[in-house]
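This section describes the prediction task in plain terms. A model, or a person checking by hand, is given the sequence of a single protein chain and must write out its three-dimensional structure as a string of tokens. No templates, partner chains or ligands are provided. The sample shown here is typical of the held-out split.
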Amino acid sequence: MALVKDSILLDKVRGVLGNEFVIYERNGQIIIAKKRGPSKGKPTTKQLEARYKMKVAVAYAKAVIMDPGIKAYYKSLAGPGQNAFNMAVRDAYQSPEIQDIQFEAETVVVTAKNEFRVAEVNVRVEDARGVILERGKAVLSRNGVHWSYKVSTVPPGGKLVIVAVDLPGNETVRELKIE
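The expected answer:
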């Protein structure tokens, strides 16, 4: 890899040169590198999964970049050498994290985080046999991290099922047994 400085010849050139070199720009610098060839081995299961995940992430990014509001949100999070598209792909790769579930009186308080944004938290109350007694969306508190849901019935031996969802639709599920 070579970095090019003050070259009139390569200032506007980008792409493949003679099927041997690649010329591209990153962070305002022109870079010349040897062109990589295709892999000779058969892809592993993990590689195929990664390719599929990337295909889904790119499809998500292409779709949401058409919305000016979401594009502006992702652009606001982009650093040097990044754009809204890069941030949308990155967001599609990560699921939200449910860090804590507190059960205070009749209120369930869920602490959910994501590098970008947790779009919603859903709460489901099931009895001991797994029958759904109630379900609903939790409400985000002012701190942007805690989600609250008021439970009307608390079955002994049942469980709470918490589902956190981010903008791309990635879900994280956690269960809490009710004693």
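For orientation: The helical segments are 45-64, 68-77, 84-93.
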